[in-house]
Specification:
This protein is α+β, with helices and mostly antiparallel strands and about 475 residues long. The protein has helices at about 1-25, 45-70, 70-75, 75-80, 85-100, 105-120, 135, 150-165, 175-200, 210-245, 255-285, 335-365, 465-480, and strands spanning about 35, 35-40, 125, 295, 300-305, 305-310, 315-320, 325-330, 365-370, 375-380, 385-390, 395-400, 405-415, 415-425, 430-435, 445-450, 455-460. The chain has a domain at about 365-480. Helix 2 runs antiparallel to helix 6 (about 105-120) and helix 8 runs parallel beside helix 10. This is Bacterial Pleckstrin homology domain-containing protein. Keywords: Membrane, Transmembrane, Transmembrane helix.
């Protein structure tokens, strides 16, 4: 449970920082743009802009405060939630809710600035013009790194799939699903990188040298970013699989988890670094030759300053005006699908996958039956059923000693229920079916020492202490 809390709290922190950094980045003019609206340079120093900055900051502070207050159940889940499924659903709603609606201050300010711009006629440069520097375009293929380097993360991503197939069982189906999704994510990163590399080059200036430097820097940095992202993703998953299936020493799992969180944070912040680097380089180069700068007023192609819709532009992916990410051209079929359809498919698919994998284990209770046939003992607890013979049991005891687990390789582990494959300092590898009233509860449970099994012990009890005692008595009589 400790590792689970670290992972979830870290995801919470990363989400908050990402939204905070994204919103904060919009409150400062970038070249001749404010709130993703193209404006004359002299307007950027006006009282109107200063007033908008003050109002926007106030709105963002309210969003930050609301995020922190509603994050309390996520940061301290087991003080509020008794059911881990309820907690996970709340966490997902929190993340998705603020990802979609947390940027509302920016949308409102973008509309205000656009309206004021139209009212005052603050138009600058040419409207709805797409520039192309043919000299720079000829050198396009020399800018990004080669796609062949993506074979590295793809080959690494295949290994967890092989491991999950080799160790497949109905109770390990989640590992197979995750391995498939992991490989799919690596291929998606490769696909996105490939699309970005094929995009039309940007024309920043009438100076081809400036265009070449900026486009080359962005293409190479972004393509390297996607490659590193894919490699880190594949390495994290393979190390977890090697540890969980005991190909490597699982004592280092805590270190692995912490390293995973650190690497994930680096990946999350990597694109922020790239965008800032390109923006700083752009300002540095164009500031030296203001006369060569090309300004195009294409605000009409940006919906709320976030969504790009330009039928005159063949690019499928473009740099976003807001935040530190890329966005898609919804005027293309690919862009429309990625913006309007893919997120809904992923969201619905995630919820369905959670229901399929987690709900049955969460709501089901275990039961044990004895028979004179082989196998003699059957424990039913979907999807973690277990069967064994009386001869497989070396000894059986009943105890109420406190127990803690160092690792859960599969199954479910909450404050009130532990079902599946666990590892304990005292019992080693064990098959567990335990119920607790609360975190500090020490109910009686059966400890069956096993032989001829991949588990050292079987730990079992029911929610009813009296019923647990009856099962222990019956089991003792059977093996005597």
């Amino acid at each position: 449970m400790f590792l689970f809390r670290i992972i979830m709290d870290s995801c919470l922190f990363i989400t908050f920082i990402a939204i905070f950094a994204t919103l904060r980045s919009a409150n400062k003019p970038k070249k001749n743009m404010f709130m993703a609206v193209t404006l004359p340079y002299d307007v950027l120093d006006s009282d109107f802009i200063k007033e908008m900055q003050k109002e926007y900051k106030s709105m963002c502070n309210k969003v930050y405060l609301l995020m922190l207050i509603t994050a309390i159940p996520c940061a301290f889940p087991f003080w509020i939630f008794n059911n881990i499924m309820v907690y996970i659903f709340y966490f997902m709603i929190w993340c998705l809710g603020f990802a979609y609606y947390g940027i509302t201050p920016f949308k409102l300010m973008n509309r205000k600035v656009k309206a004021e711009k139209a009212k005052n006629g603050w138009f600058v440069g040419e409207k709805k013009v797409v520039y192309c520097d043919t000299k720079t375009t000829l050198l396009k293929n020399s800018m990004p790194i080669s796609n062949k380097y993506f074979l590295i993360p793809i080959l690494i991503g295949v290994i967890p799939l092989i491991i999950s197939i080799k160790n497949f069982s109905p109770e390990n189906i989640a590992f197979l699903v995750v391995a498939i999704l992991n490989l799919g994510l690596i291929l998606l990163l490769f696909y996105i990188a490939k699309i970005f590399n094929k995009n039309k080059l940007k024309t920043y200036s009438t100076d081809s040298e400036i265009n070449f430097i900026l486009n080359k820097a962005e293409k190479r940095m972004v393509s390297i970013y996607f490659l590193i992202n894919a490699i880190i993703e594949s390495l994290i998953v393979i190390v977890f699989y090697l540890a969980l299936f005991e190909y490597i020493d699982i004592k280092f799992l805590n270190i692995i988890v912490v390293s995973t969180l650190v690497l994930s944070s680096i990946v999350a912040l990597g694109f922020i670094y790239i965008k800032k680097k390109i923006s700083d380089l752009d300002e540095e180069l164009t500031s030296k030759n203001k006369n060569s700068e090309i300004i195009v007023d294409d605000d009409d192609y940006w919906i709320d300053g976030i969504y790009y819709y330009n039928p005159n532009d063949s690019s499928k992916m473009v740099s976003s005006r807001f935040g530190y990410n890329m966005t898609y051209n919804m005027a293309t079929k690919h862009g429309y699908f990625m913006v309007k359809k893919l997120d809904k498919i992923v969201l619905i698919g995630t919820f369905i996958l959670m229901i399929i994998l987690m709900v049955p284990a969460e709501i089901s209770n275990s039961s044990i039956t004895f028979s004179d046939n082989t196998p003699n003992i059957s424990i039913s607890s979907f999807p973690y059923s277990y069967e064994l013979d009386y001869d497989d049991i070396e000894s059986v005891t009943l105890t109420s000693e406190p127990i803690s687990f160092t690792l859960r390789t599969n199954g479910i582990g909450t404050e009130t229920k532990c079902i599946g494959n666990f590892k304990s300092d005292k019992y080693g590898k064990c098959r567990v079916y335990l119920y607790f009233e609360n975190e500090d509860d020490n109910p009686p449970y059966i400890v069956a020492k096993l032989k001829n099994s991949k588990y050292n012990y079987l730990l079992y009890n029911t929610k009813d202490d009296k019923q647990t005692q009856e099962i222990y008595s019956k089991l003792s009589n059977k093996i005597d």
